[in-house]
Fold:
Amino acid sequence: MKIAVIGTGYVGLVTGTCLAETGNIVTCVDINKQKVQMMQQGQLPIYEPGIETLFHRNIIEERLFFTANLAGAIADATIIFLALPTPPGADGDADLSYVLGASKDIALLISSYKVIITKSTVPVGTADKVKAIFRQNTDVAVAVVSNPEFLREGVAVEDFMKPDRIVIGTQDERAKEILTELYAPYVRQGNPIIFMDERSAELTKYAANSFLATKISFMNEIANLCEKLGADVDMVRLGVGADERIGKRFLFPGIGYGGSCFPKDVQALAKSAETNDYDFKILHSVIQVNSLQKNVLINKLNAFFNNDLKGKTFALWGLSFKPETDDIREAPSLTVIGHLLKAGAKVVAYDPEAMNNVKALIGEKIKYADDQYDALIGADALLILTEWSVFRTPDFNRIKKLLAGPVIFDGRNLYSPHKMAGFGFYYNSIGRMAAG
Ligand code: NAD
Structure:
């Protein structure tokens, strides 16, 4: 099949590459000409495990193309994916200008039947708005489909190639047939393609992300309570997660969720509820808890250093909002860095993939280390902000030698408090008693 993917960010690039991998001819479009040029030269604009091989193979085998020319890309394509940003607008609602703008551009260019598929996360009712734009700007028949994307950055290729489910919102029988054929290679193990109406599909994505964000905020509150009650959140997590109705995954406490999806999607669902005269109370709490949780490590630091962080140096391990990505959108690390700099502290950071993105955002306000141990030299404490695998079993003796004081604040509970006390560290983590 001939496919155009509009927008080549984390979702668009993975979608385009993975669709080319099963034999489709895919043209990816982006308005960022520099990015398009990079990809045309075989360079990836993002870090995402597993994508590199597929990206190169499909470019070489001429199934994957990149362009800034929308008209050329959609002329022959029956299927057009919209993988465009839907950032929060001024009032917390999703900004639909990218999706609606591109829909109008496409409507004015087409001369044959197209299946227009929204992969972006969009509020309920967006499919109706997209349909209206096509009705107003062209006589050509189109099917407008809501096909929300559930991939996770860091395992995006795996998620796309073997999704738990594919949700397709459409009433158009021809579009259903085309998409069933398109997605068949990805659901060979029997995972479902779930067909539904557009509104339910749009809401499914927000409900899924908001539920996951709620799970995180709930466990963060349990962790905070553990510290007050002298309980160990790791034990509570195991005890709770063994119940199949709850499940073992997504129960890890930390320093708040970040990324480009959870914060904006929870906010957008709360706003959408409000617009429709419904006060979604849980979501307000989820947002509030998350914002407080991003300060938890700073509060612990202030308590330890008697509110005097001025002139002290802190080593940070991890900047991306989660491991295996270079994405720093809404990352808790940015909140922590902001507080430290405001308090007059110095920051030396190390991240395996995200340092360039932080540098592009805040420049030389902090120092960037060549490796994880380099960051520690002479620092008053180490702060662990992202659970990259390379941080899981470090050389603790080396850490102790390099730090000015043997102090670790761990926002991701990577180590055993008992073991850390044995190494002679003061070790403070989330939802467990401080050790040392
Ligand atoms: P992104 O910001 O990484 O990428 C968007 C891309 O679209 C950018 O490259 C931008 O230059 C391009 N673009 C903007 N306007 C354009 C236009 N008119 N024509 C062509 N290209 C244009 O965004 P993303 O993270 O890929 O997210 C896209 C959508 O998918 C969002 O709605 C997001 O909520 C949703 N989503 C994201 C994830 C994720 O993990 N990132 C997962 C599921 C769903």
Notes: The radius of gyration is 23 Å. The mean pLDDT is 97.
